[in-house]
Amino acid sequence: MSQQPPIPVPAGPLGGSSALPAVAAGLGEAPPAAPVPAVPREPLPADVRDRPVPDVSHGAILYLEGVNVAFDGFKAINDLDLSIDDGELRCIIGPNGAGKTTMMDIITGKTRPDSGQVYFGQTVNLLELREAQIAQLGIGRKFQKPTVFQGHSVFENLELAMQADKRVRRSLFAQLDAGQRARIDEVLGIIGLRGHERRPAGALSHGQKQWLEIGMLLMQNPRVLLVDEPVAGMTEQETAQTAELLVSLAGKHSVIVVEHDMAFVRSIARKVTVLHEGHVLAEGTMDQIQANPKVVEVYLGEGA
Amino acid sequence: MRGFLSLHTRTGWLAFATLTALLLIAVPLLNALPADSALHLPDYLVPLLGKFCCYALVALAMDLIWGYTGILSLGHGVFFALGGYSMGMYLMRSMAGQGVYRSQLPDFMVFLNWKELPWFWHGFDQFWFAALMALAVPGVLAFVFGWFAFRSRIKGVYFSIITQALTFALMLLFFRNETGFGGNNGLTDFKQLLGFSLAEPGVKLGLYWISACVLLTVYLLAQAIVHSKFGRVLTAIRDAESRVMFCGYEPLYYKLAVWTLSAVLCGLAGALYVPQVGIINPSELEPTQSIEMAVWTAVGGRGTLAGALLGAATVNGLKSWFTVAAPELWLYVLGALFVGVTLFLPQGLIGLVRRLRPGKTEEVRA
């Protein structure tokens, strides 16, 4: 598996910290044949032309505080506090209706909270931005049901997702350059779909669609990946490959995984957050979580 | 150049070249044959073919917005009619003094006892102004309408119903004499265009020829659009709009762009249509007209531009034949055609053509 190229990482805010060790490692291993420029290849849209570099000086790439959302009186999210560190792989679990998907909707701008704060780094207030702007900032999202462009080929799916100037008039005359083709090829390798690039995405298997969707996120050079139930409906082997893929992405990206499959969570998680009724119930390693009486009660004792 | 050539497969270019030769060369030649020749194309068929070219242009516009972007408009008659009225206003103004009343005003205004030209008729004595308005008025209306509809994220059947309401409302407005566009009768009895008498067969042939050229040019333009990254984003919006948004695109602007372009193309078609058929009236704004436009595209095959051309030609060819041979049957035939295609040919006639071509498997995009 080829190494992913380093995403443009600011020197300043990170300081000398070792928050992103994999980035430094990635620099050395970049293939010399196709040097990947360290800056965005095309100018970005006016509203994010200077893609704000998130200020992660306090360690957090995503920060939610006191968030509340109610739908018709039902409190889907109830005073939620959550902080995700830069480069972290975080698993979020919780029973149905715990607010996991709503939380992702809030982060990606799909749902506006009734109150609370949502920050990207220290300075970017996500509540002021639209979905597309948040995506342009580098927050990618994978849906529960694999959502790819069925009529397009695998290659075109990745091309469309690639970080670029995504305004209408640019799209009319956009042509791929060699560097961009190399990048697409590289992501094809990462998601294990090399050789499938000409196939229509609609013809892929369920697992392949899930990987393609993850590949589409990677094309956006995201800082944060929000991944909703990545292994639902996957075979055991596909699940294992997905676990490997997500673990390899952490460090370079912050990865937040919402998942029901406990064995899968155990296999990838370093830190787990348990949501319950729109609120953080517990946080810690998988062992700590499983020993936590409150968690046991929510998961096992609901009827008791 | 190579990028342009790659818009089509070799078979595709061959078909396009054949169509071009047929429309631009064969039709005038057959028309020029002596009248007693078996292959002679009678004069009365020339404007009919010109009309078909305009309808095919509408079908292309419809395909861009519906076939490729997945937005079903049931109000494209509005843009077609507005383009037509703009051209009709020029034709009315250019015959000032030659009407029944020998007045400088159009006849219907004399009839209504109006003493001077309403403000919105000014400028239409200039061809360039009318031509500009034929594109600008549909474009601006579509832009404003689309801005509010798409920004409110109105989709699917709701959008279709609103467009249907739009064309109905405009029809009622244009039916009124006070609106100032000839009311029920519309604009008709045209005499000349840029000094050429519209009664001359040569002028009719010329208008047909221009319509065919415009159609073929727009077809190539549309091919270039759907093969660009812009076109791929449109198809992506059709298939998974939320994914497009979370990829960092603003679907609003893409939809607005293609919607407005589609409306402008319809206006162009309307402007070419009116001098050839010699009349524009509010019946073009009837809801069924707009629905029929959608049927052309559906019958030909959505999401394939060649299908739009084929559908418009087939449906209108059948319509012309049936309304002469068995007029009472036409609506049943149209209904049966639509139901049949929906049930048995989801990819339309073009899908059937592709299926019947041996040795060719389904391509991602032809």
TrEMBL record, chain A:
Protein name: Urea transport system ATP-binding protein
Xref: Pfam families: ABC_tran, BCA_ABC_TP_C
Keywords: ATP-binding, Nucleotide-binding, Transport
Coiled coil spans: none
Organism expressing this protein natively: Plasticicumulans acidivorans
Source organism, top-level taxon: Bacteria
SMART domains reported in the protein's UniProt record: AAA
GO molecular function per UniProt: ATP binding; ATP hydrolysis activity
PANTHER family the record matches: CONSERVED COMPONENT OF ABC TRANSPORTER FOR NATURAL AMINO ACIDS-RELATED, HIGH-AFFINITY BRANCHED-CHAIN AMINO ACID TRANSPORT ATP-BINDING PROTEIN
Alphabetized Gene3D superfamilies for the sequence: P-loop containing nucleotide triphosphate hydrolases
Tagged with keyword Transport: yes
A GO CC annotation given for this chain: plasma membrane
Domain ABC transporter: 62-302
Automatic annotation (TrEMBL), chain B:
Keywords linked to the UniProt accession: Cell membrane, Membrane, Transmembrane, Transmembrane helix
GO CC, any one term: plasma membrane
Keyword Membrane on entry: yes
Keyword check for Transmembrane: yes
Membrane-protein topology: Multi-pass membrane protein
Transmembrane segments: 48-66, 73-92, 127-150, 157-175, 206-226, 252-274, 329-353
InterPro entries: ABC_transp_permease, ABC_transptr_urea_perm_UrtC, LivM-like
Coiled coil feature spans: none
One Pfam family per UniProt: BPD_transp_2
Subcellular location: Cell inner membrane
A GO MF term: branched-chain amino acid transmembrane transporter activity
Protein name (record): Amino acid/amide ABC transporter membrane protein 2 (HAAT family)
Organism: Plasticicumulans acidivorans
Source taxonomy: Bacteria, Pseudomonadati, Pseudomonadota, Gammaproteobacteria, Candidatus Competibacteraceae
